[in-house]
Amino acid sequence: MENPLTKKWFVILNPHAGSGRGKKDQAEILKRLTKADFQYELAVSEFPKHIIQLTIDAIEKGYRNLIVAGGDGSLNEAVNGIFSQTFCLPEEITVGMIPVGTGNDWIKTFGIPNYYSEAVKILNQGEIMRQDIGRITFSENDLTKNCYFANMAGFGFDAMVATKTNQLKSKGRNGISLYLQALGSSLFNYRTTKTQVVIDGQKIDELIFSVSIGIGKYNGGGMMQAPGAIPDNGLFQVTIIRKIGLLGILRNLSGLYSGKYVNDYRVSTFQAKNISISSAHNIAGEADGETLGDNKFEIDIFSQKLAVIYNPQKYLKEK
Ligand SMILES: Nc1ncnc2c1ncn2[C@@H]1O[C@H](COP(=O)(O)OP(=O)(O)OP(=O)(O)O)[C@@H](O)[C@H]1O
């Protein structure tokens, strides 16, 4: 007998996303889904990382279609639920997104509009693409852990900015300007670190400012950090920024938004499947804006592993 829940949607809403926008807009989001004839069950996350468990529970119940109403962190948790459960293959799950977050960087590559009515329209059209998913293996408190990401991971300076951004969000700060504030304050505190990066066997051992690894193109609330990333080509775009001073960063600030900063002589880009990053010093990591611990990371890619609803008209395949 066919599982009736394969046709129904499981909606996971993060009330905390967008510094409380999820809670404020819950009724409006649900109204729009109902008006568009979605059959759904709702779960509201109650604490950080709760979406991972909500996702696993929904899949165990038989749901195969998920809608995440939240930001990049919420999507990241849903992806981590999908890839850590054992009730079905991750390929059997479809994920749609209603953007409620602050940065909402994943949607920018996939052409999802930042308005509820338009986002629900895209969900209704139901156009699917299979995107790549990244996995990071790292150590935390001497334990080896895995986590997955759907958009971008960053190491070094990127991770410090993510940590500062999350601190500002937890103080209730809202809006895109908080990314610039986090960037500004990180610039004064960050030290370039001697780092070993191995990209598909090619070794780099230098003073490195940051490494970003993109499936999607955007990070940090609209910065095009991986302009050459293509979400379904089975390859990450790896962007490495070598030692750079404050002036160099300030000169490249607008290029960070347009993607043109990759032309700077201190920046190198690669298309790769396997990356390892290590340092004798602490270099932090972040995955889809969520901070990870310690100083040694292995990153690999699962090609076309997750079905996501996207907007073919606005999808940013090429820069
Ligand atoms: N009920 C809750 N109370 C507190 N935090 C929560 C709750 N539910 C989820 N979270 C946490 O909220 C955090 C932020 O969510 P999310 O990233 O979706 O929004 P955002 O930070 O505003 O958007 P973006 O990441 O796109 O900038 C996540 O780290 C998640 O663990």
UniProtKB/TrEMBL annotation:
Where in the numbering of this chain does the DAGKc domain appear? Answer: 4-141
- Family annotation (InterPro entries): ATP-NAD_kinase_N, Diacylglycerol/lipid_kinase, Diacylglycerol_kinase_cat_dom, Lipid_Phosphate_FormReg, NAD/diacylglycerol_kinase_sf, YegS/DAGK_C
Q: Indicate yes or no for the key word DNA-binding.
A: no
Co-factor requirement: Mg(2+)
Q: What GO biological process, any one, is recorded here?
A: phospholipid biosynthetic process
Instruction: Say yes or no: keyword Magnesium present.
Output: yes
List GO terms (cellular component aspect). plasma membrane
Q: Sorted alphabetically, which keywords does the UniProt record give?
A: ATP-binding, Kinase, Lipid biosynthesis, Lipid metabolism, Magnesium, Metal-binding, Nucleotide-binding, Phospholipid biosynthesis, Phospholipid metabolism, Transferase
Matches recorded under SMART domains: DAGKc (SM00046)
Entry-linked Pfam families:
DAGK_cat (PF00781), YegS_C (PF19279)
Any idea which GO molecular function terms this record carries?
A: ATP binding; kinase activity; metal ion binding
* Descriptive protein name: Transcription regulator [contains diacylglycerol kinase catalytic domain]
Source species of the chain: Aquipluma nitroreducens
